[in-house]
User: Which sequence fits this backbone?
């Protein structure tokens, strides 16, 4: 599924990723943990094609296809989805309109037929109920005036409706209380499947009690400095990142 | 100094120019060296107007002329008013609109030029007590045209006037509205949208004078300019001495989508009364790149994402139109230009 090899990337001429390699097969959930400033968010933006994040060498492929050569919307149509650490507010565009436009743009790019309005509304109602989102909220401008927890739930709702093949969750637990964390995690876990991969980026181990990873990687100084099973997350929680910062 | 007298007297010295403070960004004197010949009468087919499907009645002036729309007390009407220029001559039009007490008018006005004409339209709109007007203006001028519209509105107590001017610019285009507001629980909404591309210019100027107590004014104008276009917003609200308990709010916000586009804005509040609530806000900026990336990450191609965000930006103004059918005409008109 996702293969990242020796990836180097800079922001404003400053190198942030310094030879990062990562291999996430379909069906697996990998977690990336690391101290602030390690390059966690940079990795999520490089993989999704944000302007200003310049790849200087290395590669990133999804099922063998060069992701870095594609525009952000083309990557989305191939199934790459980023749940933003800070979801954006889109004034004037109701959440339902936004999601339907996105869904149909992706379908069009893949040569599929557009979803009809009744089908779409039915799907939206079902998914909103699962995520305990008041359906009327979807008629409001996306994320405008929503609380931190509501914004995160809206990310998961979009994920549940767009059904991406590869998910990147960037600090999805930040700003969530325990109840919201459970709802969001249930939403993510419902999407686990043998043909879908996930990259969970987090600073704290807490999220990984809910979304259990197959592998855990430590990102420090722009590289993966250690990898292991779920127990690595607990070790990091106990002992901190200091040891790895020195290693980097 | 006015374009109307310049056209009438065929004298360019009468043209307003940058020495006139109110015209410094729409310098006709510097632009027009020789006025075109007076426009010929036009008898051909002028095609469909933008509001044909939603108006009950239509008045059409081609290459100038005069029109009177008079509504008796307690009557209602939805009238399309088409001000059409055919060819590249110069001409002026005069329109008088009167409403008796409690009469209600939906005025659906359009400016439609097809060449480099020089045209001026004067409108006088007078509302009696309790009368209501919603005026929606679509200014779809030719890129070579010079088009000036000047409306003088006089409200009576308890009258209601709502306006939305939507413009795509011209070589020079000015849409000016002056309102004498008597207070007395009359209410005024003056909104605008400009969507400019190429080398087009559009100037929306409003001057509201609150003469007495208990008047309300709300204003919201939004613009999107790209290429080398230039948008101008001048809004002045004057609150005369003694016009206490006036509540006036003005907003102007513009998006500049290219390095060479320009927006000039001059919001002014002149307040001579003590007990008033007045505010204005003005912002000019680029499209939010973070929001753009967010939309693209969800699968929207860049052009679609830009169109969605700009349509949403001006949608706030379009949503304030009261007349449902006309609101959708305006929304479609704007969407077509933003996606072009």
Assistant:
């Amino acid at each position: 599924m996702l293969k990242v090899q020796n990836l180097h990337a800079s922001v404003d001429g400053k190198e942030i990723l310094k030879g990062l390699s990562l291999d996430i097969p379909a069906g697996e959930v990998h977690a990336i943990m690391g101290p602030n400033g390690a390059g966690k968010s940079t990795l999520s933006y490089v993989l999704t094609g944000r302007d200003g994040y310049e790849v200087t060498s290395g590669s990133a492929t999804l099922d063998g296809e060069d992701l870095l050569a594609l525009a952000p919307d083309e990557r989305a149509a191939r199934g790459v989805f980023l749940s933003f650490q800070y979801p954006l507010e889109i004034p004037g565009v109701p959440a339902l309109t936004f999601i339907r436009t996105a869904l149909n743009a992706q379908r069009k790019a893949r040569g599929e037929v557009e979803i009809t309005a009744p089908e779409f509304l039915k799907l939206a109602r079902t998914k909103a109920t699962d995520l305990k989102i008041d359906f009327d909220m979807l008629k409001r401008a996306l994320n405008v005036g929503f609380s931190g927890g509501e914004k995160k739930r809206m990310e998961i709702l979009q994920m549940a409706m767009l059904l991406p093949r590869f998910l990147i969750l960037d600090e999805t637990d930040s700003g969530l209380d325990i109840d919201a964390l459970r709802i969001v995690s249930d939403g993510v876990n419902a999407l686990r499947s043998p043909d879908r991969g996930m990259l969970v980026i987090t600073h704290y181990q807490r999220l990984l009690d809910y979304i259990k990873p197959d592998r855990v990687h430590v990102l420090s100084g722009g590289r993966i400095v250690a990898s292991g099973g779920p127990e690595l997350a607990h070790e990091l929680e106990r002992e901190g990142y200091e040891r790895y910062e020195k290693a980097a | 100094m006015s374009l109307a007298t310049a056209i009438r007297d065929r004298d360019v010295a009468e043209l307003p120019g940058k020495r006139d403070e109110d015209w410094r960004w729409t310098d006709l004197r510097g632009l027009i060296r020789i006025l075109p010949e007076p426009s010929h009468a036009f008898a051909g087919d002028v095609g469909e107007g933008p509001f044909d499907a939603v108006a009950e009645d239509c008045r059409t002036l081609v290459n100038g002329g005069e029109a009177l729309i008079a509504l008796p007390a307690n009557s209602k009407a939805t009238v399309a008013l088409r001000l059409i220029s055919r060819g590249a001559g110069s001409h002026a039009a005069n329109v008088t609109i009167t409403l008796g007490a409690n009469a209600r008018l939906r005025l659906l006005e359009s400016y439609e030029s097809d060449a480099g004409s020089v045209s001026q339209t004067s409108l006088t709109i007078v509302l009696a007590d309790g009368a209501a007007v919603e005026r929606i203006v679509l200014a779809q001028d030719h890129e070579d045209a010079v088009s000036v519209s000047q409306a003088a509105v006089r409200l009576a107590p308890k009258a209601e006037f709502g306006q939305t001017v939507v413009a795509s610019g011209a070589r020079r285009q000015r849409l000016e509205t002056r309102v004498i507001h008597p207070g007395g629980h009359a209410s005024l909404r003056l909104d605008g949208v400009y969507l400019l591309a190429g080398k087009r210019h559009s100037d929306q100027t409003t001057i509201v004078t609150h003469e007495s107590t208990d008047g309300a004014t709300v204003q919201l104008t939004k613009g999107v300019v790209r290429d080398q276009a230039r948008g101008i917003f001048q809004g002045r609200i004057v609150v005369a001495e003694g016009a206490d308990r006036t509540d006036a709010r003005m907003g102007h916000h513009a998006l500049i989508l290219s390095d060479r586009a320009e927006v000039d804005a001059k919001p002014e509040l002149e307040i001579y009364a003590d007990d008033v609530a007045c505010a204005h806000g003005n912002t000019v900026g680029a499209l939010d790149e973070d929001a753009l990336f967010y939309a693209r990450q969800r699968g929207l191609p860049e052009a679609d994402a830009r169109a969605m965000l700009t349509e949403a930006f001006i949608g706030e103004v379009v949503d304030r139109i009261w007349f449902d059918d006309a609101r959708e005409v305006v929304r479609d008109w704007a969407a077509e230009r933003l996606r072009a």
In short: The mean pLDDT of chain B is 96.
